[in-house]
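Hey, resending since the last one bounced:
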Amino acid sequence: MKNKGFTLIELLATVVILAILFLFMTPKIINIIKDADNKNKQIVEAKIIDAGKEYVTDYNKEFIQNFINVNDYGCISINELIDVGLVDQDEVSIIEAVSVKVKLLADDKLEYTICYASCC
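The structure tokens again:
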């Protein structure tokens, strides 16, 4: 009578091979996930900056009229950007931003910076 099963040694060899593969693959998979998260955060940050620019130019043109001197600044809250529909609440929760700081630079250029804590 022939047994049609695996021997204990064959099962142990399989488990050892799988464990070795797991040890080598886990750090690589974790790095891939971290890289994807960082890329996603960068995309959301760029979208928030673009939303701040659009807010200043299309939704609230009076926002920068008070900027007289170089380095004058104002802030647009993330909630305001959400209220006017320029960003989505779910996207913003990824990076936990508080506001977008708009600062007047030389030559009437504006600098947009994301604030993660109170910066205004």
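The first helix runs from residue 8 to 59.

Sorry for the duplicate.
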